[in-house]
Specification:
Layout: H1 2-6, H2 9-12, H3 18-25, H4 27-49, H5 54-98, E1 105-107, E2 110-122, E3 125-133
Antiparallel strand pairs: 1-2, 2-3
Length: 134
């Protein structure tokens, strides 16, 4: 991780390419759905191709990934994850407007200060920084 953040440009540049960033965006959906869909493939379709050569098995497995698993993951990202992220951002904005965040941190009857909360948006990621101010 340190090498990616502070390493030379030639090391970081390939990982900043659009296809890898897209794959990173859908990576959670891909992680969640790859195993159930792979089990579906191996349970129902693989028995029909198990007597074929390894090359044919590999090509058909790869096609299953490209034709079924990737599109399913993209749909899951767009229909479930992205709206969930937007809803979470909406809730945070609403809480900031209504000042639902506590004004004071109490520690054994000692007033430490108030909470300063800020949000920053970096493409698909929203970060919240909360710090106690005296």
């Amino acid at each position: 991780m340190f090498a990616l953040l502070h390493g030379p440009k030639w090391f970081k540049h390939p990982l900043e390419l659009a296809p890898l960033r897209w794959l990173g965006a859908i990576s959670y959906s891909l992680y969640i759905w790859h195993m159930p869909l792979a089990l579906l493939f191996f349970g129902y379709f693989f028995p029909y191709i198990h007597n074929r050569s390894y090359a044919v098995q590999y090509i058909i497995s790869f096609l299953w990934i490209v034709i079924v698993i990737l599109p399913f993951s993209v749909l899951s990202y767009r229909l479930a994850e992205k709206p969930g992220i937007r809803f979470g951002e909406y809730i945070l904005r609403r809480m900031e407007k209504q000042k639902k965040l506590p004004d004071v941190i109490q520690n054994e009857d000692t007033k430490i200060g108030h909470i300063d909360a800020t949000t920053t948006q970096d493409e698909d990621i929203t970060m919240i920084a909360i710090r106690a101010v005296q």
